[in-house]
Amino acid sequence: MDTKLFQMKETIDESELKAVAKMLQAGETVAFPTETVYGLGANATDEAAVQKIFQAKGRPSDNPLIVHVASKEDLYALTTDLPAYVDALIDHFSPGPITYVLADAGKVAPTVTAGLSTVGVRIPNHPVALAILQATKLPLAAPSANRSGRPSPTEAAHVATDLMGKIGALVDGGTTDVGIESTVLDCTGEFPLILRPGAITADDIARIAGACHTYEIEGEADKPKSPGMKYVHYAPEVPLILVGRERLSETIAHYQEKAQRIGLLYESEAFARVDLAKKRHIGQGEGEIAQALYRHLRAFSKADVDVLICEYPSLAKGHAILDRLERAATEII
Ligand code: TXA
Ligand code: MG
Q1: Which residue segment(s) compose the domain that 47 sits in?
Q2: Is residue 253 part of a domain?
């Protein structure tokens, strides 16, 4: 397949926007930027179009997709039986990096929800994503635009590496702001429950909804989680060893003894002086770490290193960045 490229980094050209909308309306797949990561979009009401997403990504069919819409009204049209707290959450956080899991009104294709009775919907906060949604006048199913299992793409080049030739088009909107995927919030119960942590935290949500549950709260641990949570995720090309600061030096020494080519992703400045060819600083502060995390993970390739050692960043337990790193890790020391 010939993947068409569109450039919308600085300005959104009306005729190009129309061309993109036409492709989506015709059942093609188009990768586009959101504020979190790039998504691979298709008409959520068209079963054949949605199937193309699963095929291009190599995604297991029991993992439901997030549907993207342009407005609160469009979100309501896809859902039913909303608890009272949802309206306030939407007014406060959307458009933004949060996905609401709600009772499905039956408007989207069956594969989008993987047969569940709920649908995940979000309003992305990115000018290109919103322009495309408004131009198509369609709800767009869009998982992250990576091959299944790989780190999510935060720039168009990442999408090209994973999906070139497998998708209809790629819209380049520059580097994404947030860098990690949206908070996925189950809003079918008395209180919202976080299924996947993101930039919007349980405390942020509790401030608006009165309470917010996480799986760390007693009693929630046995509830079914997001189907996607059981699969390998965010994995770099080489094994990733996640190590606490106090054992970092000995772990590096251990792999050096085995004559392994080591890549290092470090937080403490002390490790800036370690003599390794491939090393990167993870960043300063949670915003910067999240924004660059997948770019870092993608930067260590098999050609250069045998193993990636990553210093466990000093962040609060349950932080979205730790969640992603722990899922990406082959070993945690
Ligand atoms: O920021 C994001 O959310 C990005 C951008 C592109 O919007 N999208 C994204 O999609 O990360 P994806 O498919 O990579 O992750 C969707 C997650 C999966 O863990 C999936 O299982 C969960 O959301 N999910 C989707 N619909 C669900 C539902 N009805 N119930 C429970 N979990 C659901
Ligand atoms: Mg994904």
Answers
A1: 4-214
A2: yes
Tell me the pTM. Answer: 0.96
Nearest ligand 1 atom, CA 182: 1
Q: Is 153 in the pocket of ligand 1 (CB under 6 A)?
A: no
**Substitution site in 32, 53, 181, 186 for ligand 1 pocket (most atoms within 8 Å of beta carbon):** 181
Structural contact between residues 161 and 180, judged by C-beta atoms closer than 8 angstroms: no
220 falls within a domain: no
Are 97 and 51 found together in one domain? yes
Would you say residue 146 has pLDDT above 50?
A: yes
Whether the bond into 95 is cis, omega within 30 of 0: yes
75/161 same-domain check: yes
Looking at ligand 1, which residue's alpha carbon is closest to its atom 27?
120
- Residue 228 structure tokens: 């996607």
Cβ-Cβ contacts under 8 Å for 117 (sequence gap 6 or more): 103, 104
Instruction: State if residue 125 touches ligand 1 by the CB under 6 angstroms criterion.
Output: no
Indicate whether 37 and 147 sit together in one domain: yes
Q: Any idea what the CATH number is for the domain that residue 171 is in? A: 3.90.870.10
Of ligand 1's atoms, which has the minimum distance to the CA of residue 39?
Answer: 6
Residues 78 and 204 reside in one and the same domain: yes
Domains identified in the chain, total number: 2
Q: How far is the CA of 248 from the centre of ligand 1 (A)?
A: 33
Query: What pLDDT digit, counting tens, does each position of 171-192 carry?
Result: 999 999 999 999 999 999 999 9
Residue 127 within any structural domain of the chain = yes
Residues 52-93 have pLDDT tens digits of 999 999 998 889 999 999 999 999 999 999 999 999 999 999
Q: How far apart are CA 288 and CA 32, in angstroms?
A: 22
Is 224 a domain residue? no
DSSP symbols for 166-186: TSSEEEE--S-SS-SPPEEEE
Confidence band, pLDDT 50/70/90 cuts, at residue 218:
very low
162 CB within 6 A, ligand 1: no
